[in-house]
Amino acid sequence: MRWLARNAFPIGLAAAGFTLAVGYPTGDPDTYWHLASGQWMLDHREILRTDIFSSTVSGQPYSVGEWLGEIVLTLVFNAGGWAGLAIFRALLVGIAAFFLARLSRRGGAPLVAALLVVVWALVLSKTRWTDRPAIFTFVLFPVVLDLLYSARAGSRRALYAIPPLILLWANLHGGYAIGVALVLAFTVEAALRRRPDVVPLIMVLVASIGLSVVDPETFGVGGAAGHALAPPRFISEEAPPDVLEASGFIFAAFVLATLGVALTNGGALLDALLLIPLLWLALSAQRHLGFFVFAATPFVAAGAARLYARVRPRATPVRPLPPPAAAALAVLLCAGALASAIGVPVAPDEHAYPVGAVAALKSGSGTLLNEYDWGGFLIYRVPERKVFVDGRLFPFYPAVLRDYRDAVELRPDWKDVLARYDVREVLLMPARPLAVALREDGWTVRAEGSNFVLLARP
Known about the structure:
This protein is mainly α. It contains 20 helices and 4 strands. β3 and β4 form a beta hairpin.
């Protein structure tokens, strides 16, 4: 009862996160190839180290650093289908919300200020609620950050829990490099401030780096850093944030709020060590927005509370609920979250995919050139046809992706690309320049829908 009362706020946010996340059907194109990869590894009892899905890089070695994450998601899918994936995703979102709520009170912010900031942070993070290994980084980032703050406050147990988490993270998803960076920031701050915990932090940092390479897929910090430094900009999530979109607008609001708090109240060295690199990372690609927002949450919440106290110094503070009432509310919210799972979607949302072309694809042959975002769908739904490109990215970057863009955007060498790969069929959006040109050149329409056209060489 006492623990429930003390953690009523983070439990309530966790329940709300679960309720929101469980209602979304799977729709991420990468989910499909992750499940196909995970199933291959379960069937063959070995890690998938070479390409088996494409016609362009078949047999070539590659690594995306997510082997364990793929296996976990596949085991969940095999046990519970698409509904199981949605429930599992909701559980992970709930865990992230729990630790984000804890982070929001680290700066001493009152409940109301923390609630407002966390709600907007969760709204922004909705784009990361996906059924792919990246969701493990979305969860483990606030967990490790909260443990580091707890360790800074004197908890040795929290500090020593970090290296095992980094080991797990390194095998679940390639984003573990940012977890190591968090430990580095706290270690540098402790060294510069000559804090008494600097030696334990150094030990944890060394252990985290050492354990991060205990990964049979060997993606490595270098691979993660290289991806961050040179992302392929034509992919939407790799593009810089767009303030005209909802996530970009909320991110911009957090940036302005962070700057406002820093200008009015100042900031600690640790805040700068955390927020400045994460701001650069967020500006480099949309997929990284949540890291800055999550790390800025305690800073912004505490700053907003201090600003409000200055503006209304005599305002009546909000009284916390009595412990029995807080515990009862936490239980009620959890019960509501569990009840929301009744309506969990049992099928993926495939309205954006060429579902109507599946039958024709199964009866076709030859090299297929497909939309980048449809590669994962085809790997899962039409495994007998090798894809041209898909969301694994690394095997195709840069040569195949360059050829793909040259072809679909009808650049000067597009005919050379089709000839070099001996392309026999193309599956593209109808408005693609290549699709329009091939129709005019007499390619045969084998299947067509509102969002796709399958053309075959005459």
